[in-house]
Amino acid sequence: MGSDESLVQQYLTPSNIFGAFLTYIVISLVADFFFSPKYPTSIPWVGHGKSLFGTLRNTFAGFTQSKSWMQDGYDLYSKHGKAFVFPSMLGATAQTMIPRSQMSWMLDQPDHVLSTSAAHYEVLHGDYSFVSKTCLKDPYHEHVVHKNLARNLNAVIPDLDDEVSRDVDELLGTDTETWKKIDPLEGMMMRIIPKITNRVLVGEPLCRNKDYLDNMLGFTMDVIRGFLLFTITPQILHPIVGPIHGLAAKYHYWRTSQYSLPLIKQRLSDIGKKDAGDPEFKNWKEPNDYVTWSIRTSIAEGRRDELNPSMIALRILPLNFASIHTTALTGSATLLDIFSSSPDVVQSLREEALRVYTAHGRKWTKTGLSSMYRIDSAIRESQRISAFSLSFIQRKVMVKEGIVSPEGVHLAYGTIVAAPWIPLAGDEQFYETPEVYDAFRYSRERERYEGLSAEDKAKEDVLKFRQTGLVTTNDRHLPFGHGRHACPGRFFVAHELKMMIGHLLIHYDIKPLKERPQPMWVGRNQVPAKADLEIRRLKVE
Ligand code: HEM
After folding, report:
1. Quick one: which atom of ligand 1 is closest to the CA of 482?
2. Where are the transmembrane segments (predicted)?
3. How far does residue 142's CA lie from ligand 1's centre (Å)?
4. pLDDT value at position 40?
5. 234-262 pLDDT, tens digit each
6. Is there a smaller number of Cβ atoms within 10 Å at the N or the C end of the chain?
7. Ligand 1 in reach of 479 Cβ (< 6 A)
8. What domains lie within the chain, and their CATH numbers?
C-alpha cells in the first residue's frame, strides 16, 4: 500500500501532469489536423494560419481573439469578394466564410449540395445532444414549423396576449411604490419566454408547469454546456465524451415526457375520434398548437413514423432549444439598448405602444402589432448592434467530390461554409454611424411615408420600407439567417417581443441606465452583460 502511494506521488507531479496534458493536446490537434476537410492553398486563413503550429495557437487564442479575426477576415477578404477560413478551436471545426457577393450562390444551392440541417447537426453535436440522432438528422419539426407557425399566428395572438400579460405581471408584481431590481436576461426573459414559447408548442396549462419547464430548460442548458464541452474536447475524443454528456439530455427528456406524452396521446386519440366522426367530438375544437400542427401535418403527408407519441415529444426539445435562448437574448439586449438610450427614445416607444394598444380596444391585434414601427425598429437595431453570435448562417458541403464556389475555390466534402454577421453589421458602407444604437434607424422613413397623402405615397418606393422590417431578412441583415431556411419562428418572435416590451412600457416604469452594460466575447459567441434593471408598476395607466 505504502509503495503504491509513493509510486503515485512519484509520478503525479505537477510537471508530469502538465506534460501529459500537453501531450494529449498535441496528439489531439495532430489527429484533428489530419482528419479535418482539406482546404486549397489559394484560400486565405485568419488567426495564426493553418500550419500545425498555427492550429495549436488558434486553439487557445480563439477564445479571446475570434471577434477580431472575423473583423480582419471581413476587411481583408469579404469586402473584396473573397472567401476566407475562420480557424478551428479543438472541437469546433474551421468554417469557410463566404463573402456577401457570393451569398445568393450559397443560399440557392439545393440541400443535397449545401445542407442547413447537416451543418446544424454538426454545430449542435446532433450525435449526442438531442437524445435521438434522428431528431436532427431528419428535422421534421422544422418542416412542421415552416408549414404552420406563420399561418396560424393570427389565430394564436389572443393566447399570446393572455400569456404575456399574465407572466409579466406575475413576475414583476403590481406594487407601485417599491422598485424591483431584476436582471433582464436571467431574471426576466428566461422566466417568461419559456412559458410563452410552450403556450404555442403544448398549450395551457402545461406551458406553466414548473417541473416541465425546469426540465425543458435543463435540456436547453445541456445543449449549451455541450457547446463548451465539445469546443474544449478534441474531435477524436467526442465519441467517448459525447455519450456521457448525452445522459443529462436523456434524463431531462424523460422528465419532460412525463408531462408531454400523456398530452400527446390524448390529442392523438381526440383527433382520431373527430376524424372518425365520433358524435361526441362533433363540436370539439382542436387546440391550436404545435402538437396539433405536427399530428395534422404527419397525417396529411402520410408520415406514420411521425405519429409516434415519443417522436412528437422528442421534437418539442429542439424547438424549445431554437426558441428560448435566442429570443431571451434578443429581448434582454433590446431592453438594455433601449433603457441606456436617451429618455426621448423610451418616451417615444411608450407613446407608440399606448396609442396602438388603446386604438385596438386595449388588446394586441395583428394590425396593431404590425403598425408598431418604432419597437420593430428598436428590436432590429438591437439585433444589429448587440447580436449574440459572430455568424448566423451555416451550411455543410454534402457532395463527395466537393463543390467549386463562384470565385473558383474548391470546397471539400464536409466543409462548413458560413457568413460573417458582426463585421457586416458594423460596416459604414451599409449603416451610417454603425457604432451608435439608433433605435429608430429603420422606422423614421417608414413613419414619414405613413404620414404622406395617398397621392404622395404613390410616388414612393414602398418596397424600400418593407426591406427594413424586423422579420425581413436580406444579405445585409442576417440574425434570422436568410434564404429558404431563414428562421420560420421570426414572425412569432416579432409578435412576442413587441407584446412583451409594449406591455412593459405601458404598465411599468423602468429607470434609465447610466451606460450600456458591455458583454464579453468568448470564442464565437457573446456572454451577455449582467445588469440590473430597476422596475416598478406605473401608477397611472
Ligand atoms: C430571436 C429569436 C430567434 C433567432 C435570432 C433565431 C435565429 C435563427 C437562425 C439564425 C436560424 C438559421 C437560419 C439559416 O440558416 O438561414 C434559425 C433557424 C430556425 N429557427 Fe430560429 N431564431 C429565433 C427564434 C425561433 C423560434 C421562436 C422558433 C420556433 C418557434 C425558431 C425555429 C427555427 C427553426 C425550426 C429553424 C430551422 C429552419 C430551417 O433550417 O429551415 N426560431 N433561427
Report:
1. 16
2. 17-35
3. 9
4. 76
5. 777 889 999 999 999 999 999 999 999 99
6. N
7. yes
8. 2-123 (no CATH), 133-387+431-475+479-537 (1.10.630.10)
